[in-house]
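Here is the promised in-class demo. Please do not try to memorize the tokens; focus on the logic of going from shape to residues.
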């Protein structure tokens, strides 16, 4: 293992310029490096304006996350954006700069008391929890031939596993905000999002059409409510930890719920959905997992030439190879751009879902 003096690496990074380092090690920071001082989408949680680099970032590398607060230097920003521990971030920066470890100068930082990084007043968290519980209580478990079953079968998903599933429910009148700011409502499939410790912290809504078996005809038919804690590391679970144990430690993970449901339909194994690429790259599998199959989206290239879905899956794979060497990790990618696994399932390409050799 390489050892580096953190102060020397930090000085070298400041002299070299942190912006190139940040965007090279973590491509999701590129927009922030191009718009220093301005709010941009969070590299971890997505959204529109949850993150920014400070104006002195070219020298300091520092930034600010609406969820995490101030990130005092480039190391802290990379820790936040990649989910890697300090020693791994330090090594990545040193390697980027071409530094060597001829002298083992790096000393492990002393442990510090950890505080909550979800900086929302307790009163606000209680209000959010009350709204989530009330909304969940208005819903019902999925029943044979109800609207949720119709939607999933419209997506090619047939299995009876969806009936009575605790994390997936039907809401007859879920509210949403219209483009002109008014409140409206429609039927919805709602999903319980759980943190790594199993606690529920948010609800995801998929609004359903009254005209077809698919999603509602609206600009954004998928929305999340306000979380009661940090969502990083969590997922919507099809099958719990006990199911992972009974399947010899096997777990599948993907972005979209429909992809996760597709995998559950085919293999009848635990299959979890992080709901977006930002949460996929920070996913934390339970300690019971021995084999993790990452079913990534093959997104079209964005304006910066990046493939968000594939990039996030690769970052998750690399992070877990460092942090969880006990896990066997398999990365599965659709063959063509603009494809996800549910698309392929609907097209009848079952041959692409092989787990042979795993």
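The designed amino acids, position by position:
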């Amino acid at each position: 293992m390489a050892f580096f003096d953190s102060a020397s690496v930090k000085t070298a990074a400041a002299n070299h310029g942190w912006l190139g380092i940040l965007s090279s090690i973590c491509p999701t920071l590129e927009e922030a490096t191009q718009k220093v001082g301005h709010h941009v989408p969070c590299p971890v949680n997505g959204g529109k304006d949850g993150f920014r680099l400070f104006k002195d970032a070219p020298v300091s590398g520092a930034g600010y996350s609406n969820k995490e607060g101030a990130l005092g230097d480039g190391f802290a920003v990379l820790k936040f954006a990649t989910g890697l521990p300090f020693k791994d971030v330090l090594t990545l920066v040193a390697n980027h700069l071409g530094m060597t470890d001829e002298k083992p100068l790096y000393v492990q930082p002393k442990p510090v008391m950890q505080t909550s990084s979800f900086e929302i007043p307790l009163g606000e968290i209680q209000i959010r929890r009350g709204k989530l519980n009330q909304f969940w209580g208005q819903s019902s478990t999925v029943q044979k031939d109800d609207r949720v079953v119709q939607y999933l079968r419209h997506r090619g998903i047939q299995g009876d596993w969806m009936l009575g599933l605790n994390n997936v429910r039907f809401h007859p009148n879920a509210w949403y905000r219209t483009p002109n700011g008014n409140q409206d409502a429609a039927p919805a499939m709602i999903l319980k999002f759980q943190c790594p410790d199993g606690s529920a912290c948010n609800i995801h809504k998929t609004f359903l059409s009254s005209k077809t078996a698919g999603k509602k005809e609206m600009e954004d038919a998928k929305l999340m409510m306000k979380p009661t804690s940090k969502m990083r590391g969590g997922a919507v679970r099809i099958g719990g930890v006990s199911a992972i144990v009974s399947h010899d430690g096997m777990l599948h993970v993907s972005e979209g719920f429909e992809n996760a449901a597709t995998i559950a339909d085919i293999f009848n194994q635990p299959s979890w959905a992080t709901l977006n690429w930002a949460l996929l790259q920070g996913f934390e599998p339970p300690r019971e997992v021995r084999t993790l199959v990452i079913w990534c989206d093959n997104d079209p290239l964005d304006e910066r030439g990046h493939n968000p879905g594939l990039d996030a899956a690769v970052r998750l794979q690399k992070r877990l190879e460092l942090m969880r060497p006990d896990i066997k990790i398999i990365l599965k990618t659709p063959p063509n751009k603009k494809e996800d696994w549910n698309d392929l399932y609907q097209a009848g390409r079952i041959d692409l879902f092989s787990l042979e050799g795993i």
